Structure formats: C-alpha cells, structure tokens
Amino acid sequence: MKRLALLLLLSASASACGAPRRHPEELEREAYARKLVEREKVQNSFRLASSYDVRFETGFSGIGYDPIEDMQAKAFRWIGQHSFVRLRPHGTKDMSLTIYGWVDVKTIHTKPAVTAYIDGQIIADMVVGDDGGFALVGTAPGDLLAGKTWVLLEIDVSSVGWHWFDPPALMVANINHFDWSEAP
Question: Domain 53-182 carries which CATH code?
C-alpha cells in the first residue's frame, strides 16, 4: 500500500508539471494522494518527491531510506556537487526555501560550503557543521521571480567533485528535507 501511495503521488505530480493552470481533477488527484501519504505515514518521502511546484532534475538520486526498504523511516536523496531543481514561483510573491541535509565530512576530510542559487542569485549558504549537517534557509524575493513560469535552483557543495571521466557513485552528501512555499 505504501508503494501505491508513492506511485499515486508521483503520477499526480508528474501530470501537473506541464500546465500553467491547475484543473479541478488535478487538484482532486493531488488531494487524494496527500491523504493516502498521510494514512500510510510516508510524509518523509513526500517532502522529497517532485510536485506541481518542485521538479528534481539532474544531480539527485532517487529517494532512499534509512533503514533501507522502511518507507516510514528517514527519507533522503543523495546529491552531487551541482544539483538542480526547477521551482514554480507564485507570481510576484516572495518564496521561502528550506533545505536540510548532511555531508559525510569523515569521507571527504573537509567541511564544505553548501550554497543555494536561484537563477544565479545566492539565496542561502553555509559551511556544514562538525557533524556534517546543514540547513539552507532563505527567501527568494518576488522581483526575482516575477513573470517567470519556472526558476532554476542550483545546490552547490564545494569540495565534492571528481574528474569528469571517472566519477564514482557519489554518496557523500544528501538532503533529507525540502520545502518551497510562499513566504509568510
């Protein structure tokens, strides 16, 4: 049933991606998927799934779980040195961005900076803590978003990179929470 909830959620969000306006059936489908996600207690996955306003693009793994196969456990997505997300603005309204994650500082032997850019403008940045944790919290101003159907979020992790010809399966940085919503 949990897999069905995620499949319904993903199908609802994928169908919503192309249209600038939302149709009533689309809204009903999303509401149904949200109720199913709550009933099955897989909200952790829901926060990391693509939706009408958020499309995870290159640089992200699929959603993983710790422990593996426990969909109610901690959900995360591995990220690369440069990871991209398409975000849908809400007209000229300021939008809040919140991303929590972790970098394996023991493996890379350094504490990198993590930076979030929207259309090239820095929205939030920080050097990860001693435990590797980071929290990117910022606001995208409405004037940056005005008149755009989509904007591009780039998440950069400094000190994480490999020669382009020989990339290993990077599993040194991840996100475990993502929120894009109208600023209060």
Answer: 2.60.120.260
Domain ranges of the chain: 53-182
Render each residue's pLDDT in the chain as its tens digit; 184 residues. Answer: 555 444 444 445 544 443 356 778 877 877 887 787 677 666 667 788 888 899 999 999 998 888 566 556 688 999 988 999 999 999 999 999 999 999 999 888 889 999 999 999 999 999 999 999 999 999 999 999 999 999 999 999 997 665 545 555 668 899 999 999 999 9
Measure the CA–CA gap between 14 and 24, rounded to whole angstroms. 16
Nearest to 5 by CA among 52, 41, 54: 41
SS3 content of the chain, % helix, strand, coil (to 5): 25, 35, 40
Evaluate whether 138 touches 87 at the Cβ level (below 8 Å).
no
Look at residue 145 and give its three-state secondary structure. helix
Q: Residue 67: what are its φ and ψ, rounded to 5°?
A: -75, 160
Distance separating alpha carbons of residues 152 and 55, to the nearest angstrom: 10
Q: What does each C-alpha distance from 104 to 38, 62, 113, 135 come to in angstroms?
A: 31, 19, 13, 15
Q: For residue 49, is it left (φ>0), alpha (ψ between -120 and 50) or beta?
A: beta
Q: pTM of this prediction?
A: 0.79
